[in-house]
Design brief:
Chain lengths: 207, 207
DNA sequence: TTGCTTGTTGAACGATCGTACAACAACTGG
DNA sequence: CCAGTTGTTGTACGATCGTTCAACAAGCAA
């Protein structure tokens, strides 16, 4: 019964668990306070640990931010995969699921957008973050190209079709989160589907 | 001839001129170093003045950033106005000019995007910046609605047509600046025009 | 219980942040 | 040429930044 006499002031965690805890705390701080407010002390306090742990587990605060970028991107990818898998086997349904998943939680939330904007704000200043963006963006487009091909978009039009769809979805996602009252999630989905109609219509395959 | 004996260590400027100089320096620093690197000292050095001037002319560094936001938005508006005016009287030409102007200088440049991203990163944390964004975004959409109406888009479809066009243009602009090698300005224009075709075609006016 | 391993703490460091303000000097009117 | 005005400087201040590291203690093995 001496366990309760003096409760432990902190608990040990496995390195991977603690790393994940710090990454999630970093994402929350980025969402709440932006890149400017993502200090080591703020992140550590959010995670309920001491500031020293950040440098202990990551290569400084920059390394933690980069790791958070990769982790959040992985969450987005997983959410997209789940949405596509839940859409069944119909090619058009899978395409629509992939596109409209960006407007629903956990992707289409102000918190995730704020996190993402914080990453974008680092692209200019940091080459490694820029490379990370290029890689993730290319992967997103490649997956979209596959879904578009399954819907009959010809090979020659595939690249621009994926780029324009990505641009429209990103733009809708952006404004939906920045100005939530301007239009609804349903309207965003309708606009995206209308664009897919135009893209996949066989009579207008080019451009 | 004593003027050259001791050259003045600094020059006085009219308040408005100095204010503009600081705003432009702030925009350059935001573009180069992001929101994280936009410190008073960095901005003052960029403007070639002493750090104390920032607090002297603006309500702290936050006030300078807000003023820079308004100024850069004004530049974008002017560039759009110029493009539309240069397009002549044809409604479709004016609409295309408005839309594709976002892909050319001075709008479609990594520097301006970096500045804009720095503003977005402040939307979350600061209510006045968020209000500024809403106002500017609404103004942009209102102007686009007018151009779309001139092209025969029916009243009922006007709102979503403007929103989707804005989203597509913003998304193209975003990725064009973040990953310049991915697609060209000409391709961005082609995709935008294709979207305008779909939006303005009378047989598919709704959605 | 005892000793060891090691995850964790928290103070300390120098650097940099935003801001304030007294001193200075560039320009103007006389 | 000489005040007077005031735009500008640059230092000083306290707060906060990222990072380091010796000391501490939680958990485990014996």
């Amino acid at each position: 019964m001496q366990v309760n006499a003096s409760s432990p002031s902190f608990r040990r965690a496995e390195p991977d668990a603690r790393r994940l805890s710090l990454i999630e705390a970093c994402a929350r701080v980025l969402a709440r306070a932006g890149a400017t407010g993502a200090s080591v002390r703020a992140i550590a306090q959010e995670a309920g640990v001491s500031p020293g742990l950040v440098s202990h587990y990551f290569d400084g605060v920059d390394g933690l931010v980069a790791a958070t970028y990769a982790h959040v991107d992985g969450q987005v990818s997983d959410a997209l995969d789940t949405a596509v898998a839940a859409a069944g086997d119909d090619a058009r349904a899978r395409l629509e699921a992939f596109v409209t998943a960006s407007f629903a939680a956990p992707i289409g939330t102000p918190a995730l957008l704020a996190t993402w904007i914080a990453f974008w704000s680092l692209v200019t200043a940091r080459g490694d973050i820029a490379a990370q963006h290029d890689e993730q963006y290319a992967g997103y487009r490649a997956r979209l190209e596959g879904l578009l091909a399954d819907c009959g978009v010809p090979q020659g039009a595939l690249r621009l079709a994926a780029i324009s769809t990505t641009a429209l979805v990103d733009g809708l996602w952006l404004e939906l989160c920045l100005s939530p009252g301007c239009f609804t999630v349903a309207e965003a989905g309708a606009m995206a589907r209308r664009h897919l109609d135009a893209i996949t219509s066989p009579d207008r395959g080019s451009g």
